[in-house]
Write a structure and sequence with these properties.
With 260 residues, the chain is of the alpha+beta class. The protein has 8 helices and 12 strands. Strands 1-6-7-5 form a 4-stranded antiparallel sheet. The longest helix has 21 residues. Bound molecules: zinc ion (ZN).
């Protein structure tokens, strides 16, 4: 599931290939980019930085241009050896950056755009992000400020998915964090203390940091996707429940016994 750790992992893989270098070749095979002329606009430009911000990835080029990507549920970034078989069909590649022996490939979009640096500073999707859960120093005060500034009646699970409150947590980490901290994801945010909100973040941060290093997210799945199965903490006396949360009804998993 593409969440903040997935994006940081991709950035960690892309950085040694592209950062501080000029790509040998840039291609945008997807028909939607046919007239956009990215290869010409980016030719000869050094990649200044590869940034992960929450669930967004930014490739900063010399001359004030940035490629902005958001994977939503379907997209993927891969780094492969040039000439090696790709993990997805070539017809699904939206962007290919080749440098030396490596190819950086973006598959299946769905958000991939070239913008000026100045636009990234005012674009609400990027500039409006809350503190990044994976930042080396997590800004806990800003997180709590933003949590308290929004609707106090909304469930804490909803608040954690709001990228303006905290950036990088998606549905999987929301479920796992609430489970590990023993907090019901449906409890109104106003009834969750600062210490409890921070406890959820403290549970997911170290796990996400490991996953961002090696790309293996599944090992931390304890409750996500286990509807109707025994709770990993309570055993068969309590079964994991599931229900849609957030405006697009993302399935939330929780144990009604040990999460209060
Ligand atoms: Zn339980």
């Amino acid at each position: 599931v593409p969440e903040g750790d997935t994006i940081h992992y991709a950035a960690n893989r892309i950085r040694p290939v592209l950062e501080g270098r000029v790509p040998d070749a840039i291609a945008t095979p997807h028909p939607r980019f046919a007239r956009d002329g990215w290869p010409e606009r980016l030719a000869g430009r050094t990649v200044r930085a590869v940034e992960a911000r929450g669930k967004h990835l930014l490739l900063r080029f010399e001359g004030g241009l940035t490629i902005h990507s958001h994977l939503r549920m379907t997209g993927s970034w891969r780094v492969v050896r040039a000439g090696q078989r790709w993990p997805r069909s070539p017809s699904r590649a939206w962007l290919v950056l080749r440098r030396g022996e490596a190819e950086v490939v973006q598959f299946d979009g769905p958000v991939l755009e070239l913008m000026t640096d100045s636009r990234t500073r005012i674009d609400r999707r990027i500039a409006g992000l809350g503190p990044d859960v994976l930042a080396p120093e997590f800004d806990a005060e800003r997180f709590l400020r933003r949590l308290r500034a929004d609707d106090p009646a909304r469930p804490i699970g909803d608040a954690l998915l709001d990228q303006r409150t905290i950036a990088g947590i998606g549905n999987l980490w929301k479920c796992e964090g609430c489970f590990e901290a023993g907090i019901d994801p449906w409890r109104p945010a106003a009834e969750v203390s600062d210490a409890e909100a921070l406890a959820i973040v403290d549970e997911v941060r170290p796990r996400m940091r490991i996953s961002a290093q090696d790309g293996v997210q599944d090992r931390f799945r304890r409750i996500y996707g286990r509807a109707g199965l025994p709770c990993p903490r309570c055993g068969p006396r309590s079964l994991v429940r599931s229900r849609g949360q957030w405006d697009d009804g993302r399935t939330t998993y929780w144990c009604p016994e040990c999460q209060r």
